[in-house]
Amino acid sequence: MTKITETLLAFFALSAVYFALYSGVIPTSEKVHDEILPFLPWWTLVTFGAYSLGTLGWGVLTFKDKEDKYKELLNQIDEAKSFYKQKGIDLDQ
């Protein structure tokens, strides 16, 4: 099973449980139903966004620690500049 299939399966399973809780198929207390369940999707979205930004920031922060990838990227930038210079496009302004 691919990673996207696993992710979609988990998403649909959690969505089914959430909608069963929200619609009352799975009984919950009135406090949970009225005060927690309506805000759960937003809390999940904010948590996922914070995790994504944190992961991206950490990757940018530690990029120079991966010396071989850093040098490979610099070589690719130099190759792209020389390619576009041959085509008559000046990128060094």
UniProtKB/TrEMBL annotation:
Localization per Swiss-Prot or TrEMBL: Endoplasmic reticulum membrane
Regions annotated as coiled coil: none
Protein's organism: Debaryomyces hansenii (strain ATCC 36239 / CBS 767 / BCRC 21394 / JCM 1990 / NBRC 0083 / IGC 2968)
A Pfam family the protein falls into: DPM3
Annotated GO CC locations: dolichol-phosphate-mannose synthase complex; endoplasmic reticulum membrane
Membrane topology: Multi-pass membrane protein
Role according to the record: Stabilizer subunit of the dolichol-phosphate mannose (DPM) synthase complex; tethers catalytic subunit to the ER.
Record carries keyword Endoplasmic reticulum: yes
Pathway(s) of this molecule: Protein modification; protein glycosylation
Protein family membership: Belongs to the DPM3 family.
Sorted UniProt keywords: Endoplasmic reticulum, Membrane, Transmembrane, Transmembrane helix
Name of this chain's protein: Dolichol-phosphate mannosyltransferase subunit 3
Regions crossing the membrane: 39-61
GO biological process, any: GPI anchor biosynthetic process
Assembly and interaction partners: Component of the dolichol-phosphate mannose (DPM) synthase complex.
Organism ancestry: Eukaryota, Fungi, Dikarya, Ascomycota, Saccharomycotina
